[in-house]
Amino acid sequence: MGSAALGSVFGVTPAIIKGNAVYLANAAFMWIVPLVVILALMTRFMDNLPLEKPNPKNLVQIFGNKHTWALTLLYTCSFGAFSGYAAALGLLVGKEFPEIPFASIAFVGPLVAGALRPVGGWLADKINSGTKVTFVSLLGLCATTALIAVGVDMHNFPFFFAMSVLTFVCCGFATGATFRMIPHVFGNPLLSSLITGFVAAVAAYGAFITPKIFGFTYTTFGSIYPAFVALLVFNLVTVAVCYWFYVRKSANMNV
Fold first, then answer.
1. What sign does the dihedral 87-214-228-129 (CA atoms) show?
2. pTM of structure
3. What local confidence, expressed as pLDDT, does residue 12 receive?
4. How far apart are CA 163 and CA 184, in angstroms?
């Protein structure tokens, strides 16, 4: 193939398709031109917000604030689960339901979650509370995480897939609502923008960590259930943090 040299340089093993060596990883290069264009447009048109410029003192402020870490946990549980399940679902179906041709419907869950993110933010604005939408969504995420494991145990793909889609629904609502909480918690536009970027960057690791958890439990225990136990515990901890910092009346956080 025309890009075989790059594949060889980086040590990528090609896939053999119809007798030809195809370096599938090179498909990522298609994004180089649009990314360069987007970065140029961002540099030209997005650096004009009426905010003071960030400095090291601002970073110390956000890292020393307990709400930075609480909101990072909430967003990691919501967007991290969204991106993590999206990345790991193919592996899970391939292991537990090998008879199912999953590739044709793999997009459904991520599409639902992505479409519902703005709806979650809109609903939070509508009821004037990102906390309520986030909290209910996280409770739903706990339930669906457990029910996905039940679907695996029953070897019932329709039930498993329905619970997976509901998981993405909960993630979609929670991601939009959690982002809505940030400026209301901090008030300061500069700090809010810094924290939004920070929590989004941390949560993005969900797409890397979740498949690793699934792979580790398969390799170590020969079963997927320990992974679901770990994810459910993480979800429950996040629900507790959300309740303690933002839901209970004595927290005095009307966000």
1. negative
2. 0.80
3. 58
4. 32
